[in-house]
Specification:
8-stranded antiparallel sheet, 3-stranded antiparallel sheet, 17% strand
């Protein structure tokens, strides 16, 4: 027989176990009753995009989302001011510097086929008697340097002639006449300096290696396999009628073969949905070379990084791509910005969540209230159901990228206006901040 003390202890122990069991049951029931955190729906993404459009002071915008092979395409605003027509999946768009992603992809394809190697010197593919500048100790510029902006070459081929259509200068002859006279700003592989000139030279090298024009390489290797029929360097009359227009006249819709590797590609939302699927390795898309989305340089190990931080400080530099966030984080993003000829463009991928966004916007007349790229990153994070990246304190504005083909105009008070900035008259304006 138990003593009263032992009985009391037993009773207390039983009550404690019962209480613990009840607490566990209640906790589980409560947890089950809570809705699991979910990525936002496409309808919610539409509302966010509408707010982004309204706060960005732009004329028109096209949004493309791909998530787990599902596609959402939506237009906002007008195809051109006072048109009364909303952009759609067939509206033609200038990709601007997003063209570099295609050139980098071609590089990895030719490398996988053995036609080139990333460490090939540019000199190997130069025209006869053309001398490519070198770094100290005869350090050559390689194809990898060109694709990662680590060649040491300047941003642009200058001076550019007046009144040339966007993305038609420089052509092959002009850039190869310019190149031998350049002194590298840094030894190859030591500094990241954004260079449109470098990507045009990369396109020339790939064409030389394949013994085909760059436009043919692009068509055969990417556009044709992906059925991207409205993506081109030679817009037809029909495609030009569908080209979105910003608030100010940006000149003619014309062939941009001269700068196809750096900035010249035209496309549509429907075609970019196919390209996003390809980049996200959707089961229905052709396979992409494994090296295409890899990181090749750690910015922290370079002497300096210039012109690569429009969407945030890069944590890795790939072939045209910038990585934002830690490689081990679910929030890591691969992105590429673009701008010029009245357009701002952006593509961002969440590889861990099979989610990507593409946005194209035409410039308006007002001042933006938000940063276009940063808000696009937040939209991607919500779609991928990952924590957003921390904000960048000083981030480049996305709504006014001035290209090398746009010369400064005179302000009313005797200054020259280049994008949002004025510089003193009769002084050479500084290089504009174009991604």
């Amino acid at each position: 027989m138990e003593t009263p003390a032992i009985a009391s202890q037993t009773s207390l122990a039983q009550r404690a176990r019962a209480t613990a069991l009840l607490t566990t049951v209640l906790f589980i029931a409560f947890a089950i009753s809570l809705p699991a955190q979910q990525p936002i729906t496409f309808a919610d993404a539409d509302l966010r995009a509408q707010t982004l459009f309204q706060q960005s002071a732009i004329t028109g915008m096209v949004l493309v989302i791909v998530r787990n092979n599902e596609v959402f395409i939506k237009g906002y605003g007008e195809t051109f001011p006072a048109s009364g027509h909303t952009p759609g999946s067939a509206s033609e768009i200038r990709l601007c510097s997003l063209s570099k992603v295609f050139a980098a992809d071609l590089l990895t394809r030719l490398a996988a086929a053995g036609a080139v190697a990333l460490d090939d010197p540019l000199q190997r593919y130069a025209p006869r008697r053309a001398k490519v500048p070198e770094g100290p100790g005869n350090t050559p510029i390689t194809l990898e340097n060109l694709a990662t902006h680590t060649s040491g070459l300047p941003r642009e081929v200058l001076p550019s002639p007046a009144k040339v259509p966007h993305f038609t200068f420089p052509n092959y002859a002009q850039r190869w006449a310019w190149l031998p006279n350049q002194t590298l700003k840094a030894p190859p592989g030591t500094t990241a300096l954004y260079s449109n000139a470098g990507f045009d030279l990369l396109g020339d090298a790939l064409a030389s290696a394949a013994h085909k024009p760059y436009a043919q390489l692009l068509h055969e290797n990417i556009l044709l396999p992906l059925d991207m029929w409205d993506t081109t360097l030679f817009p037809s009359a029909d495609q030009c009628t569908r080209l979105m227009q910003p608030a100010s006249d940006q000149g003619p819709c014309t062939s941009t073969e001269a700068t196809g590797a750096s900035s010249g590609i035209y496309s549509t939302g429907a075609d970019m949905a196919k390209f996003l699927k390809y980049l996200l390795h959707a089961p229905t898309s052709p396979a992409q070379p494994a090296a295409a989305l890899s990181v090749y340089f750690d910015p922290a190990k370079l002497k300096s990084v210039q012109g690569l931080s429009h969407a945030g400080d890069p944590t890795g530099i790939g072939l045209a791509w910038m990585q934002l966030g830690a490689s081990t984080s679910a929030s890591v993003i691969l992105e590429k910005t673009g701008g010029g000829a009245g357009f701002t463009t952006y593509i961002a991928l969440s590889p861990t969540r099979q989610t990507g966004v593409f946005l194209a916007a035409t410039w308006g007349k007002g001042d933006p209230q938000v940063n276009f790229f940063a808000e696009s990153n937040n939209l991607l994070a919500a779609l991928a159901n990952v924590p957003p990246l921390p904000p960048k304190v000083h981030i480049a504005r996305a709504s006014r990228h001035v290209t090398r083909r746009q010369r400064p105009r005179l302000c009313n008070k005797g200054t020259a206006l280049a994008g949002p900035q004025c510089v003193a008259k009769n002084r050479r304006p500084s290089a504009p901040a174009k991604p």
